[in-house]
Design brief:
Blueprint (H helix, E strand, L loop, with lengths): L2 H9 L8 H21 L3 H21 L21 H19 L5 H19 L1 H18 L6 H5 L3 H8 L2
Length: about 170
């Protein structure tokens, strides 16, 4: 699955509050909470799920900001070392620019925002494996179809069938 399709399909399950600042905070805190779940993951299927869940939040952040996820490539010509700790590093920078925008009214520094998003997407792709990322994104969308057959609802978010979701991820 390419990033353009993933971003479009991810939006189907995006809960919009009607307040763009709240929605941006939701996306940033979502990346942060998925990091915690990644750290606590017990197997490779679960770790990949959490990284793809981070991509869901990043894709929807891009939608809210009128950005294209596909503008953040996962491959570069040099072989850079990627470590798990790059995720909280970029996520804290991400939270800082969104906080300053939403709370203090500071315009988002687009160059910094792009650098952060590139860093997050690249790191996630390297941790999953660039070759596994497309398949992981497909499984992520399939999992969300199991959770939300029509669209996002609070009731379905609180009453998940984790066994069925896991079966979808293991396909």
């Amino acid at each position: 699955m390419n990033f353009r399709d993933y971003q479009k399909l991810s939006e189907r399950t995006l809960k919009r509050s009607g307040n763009n600042s709240v929605d941006l905070f939701h996306m940033v805190t979502g990346v942060m909470s998925e990091w915690e779940e990644y750290v606590d993951a017990t197997d490779s299927v679960n770790r990949q799920e959490e990284l793809c869940d981070m991509m869901w939040y990043i894709a929807n952040y891009c939608t809210l900001r009128n950005l294209n996820l596909e503008d953040f490539p996962t491959m570069v010509l040099v072989d850079l070392e990627v470590k798990d700790e790059h995720i909280p590093y970029y996520t804290s920078k991400f939270a800082d620019i969104v906080k300053k925008h939403c709370i203090y009214g500071k315009p988002i520094d687009v160059e910094k925002e792009n650098e952060i998003l590139r860093g997050l997407v690249f790191t996630i792709a390297k941790l999953i494996g660039v070759e596994n990322l497309q398949k992981g994104l497909e499984r992520n969308i399939e999992k969300l179809k199991v959770r939300y057959p029509e669209k996002y609802t609070d009731v379905l978010a609180l009453n998940r069938d984790l066994k069925k979701e896991r079966q979808t991820l293991e396909k």
